[in-house]
Give the backbone structure.
Amino acid sequence: MRIVIIHFLNTEKEINAEIIKHLQSAAIENGHQVDVVNGNEDVSNFRIIPYEYVTILASSTGPFSKQITPRISEVLATCGNSSGKKGAALILKNLMFSQKICYSLMRTMEKEGLILDYSDIIESVEHADSVGKKLG
């Protein structure tokens, strides 16, 4: 299965880069073809159409915030037709409100037509390995 992981994380933080790498490698071990896209960069040439499974990985806008970045809905709206595609909503553990942030991401993805079959709150790099095996 072709999977895309669109992340909205600061990859300058080593922990974020490790989590992305472990998610990707765990999904590849299951026999999937996985591409990783940074949603914070220019994605005007990126298209979601060739992928069968869309994973969004995000975090809150601040340590005590309940909101996700509005860039997520912009990227999903401009990347082509995502209606009817299966997907997963993944959130990095926050100090507070992790469940509410995950719910907000799920609502945003469903608004764009994605059918969510998995959601989780990633707590550590080791947890990212087990989550990556469930993608697809």
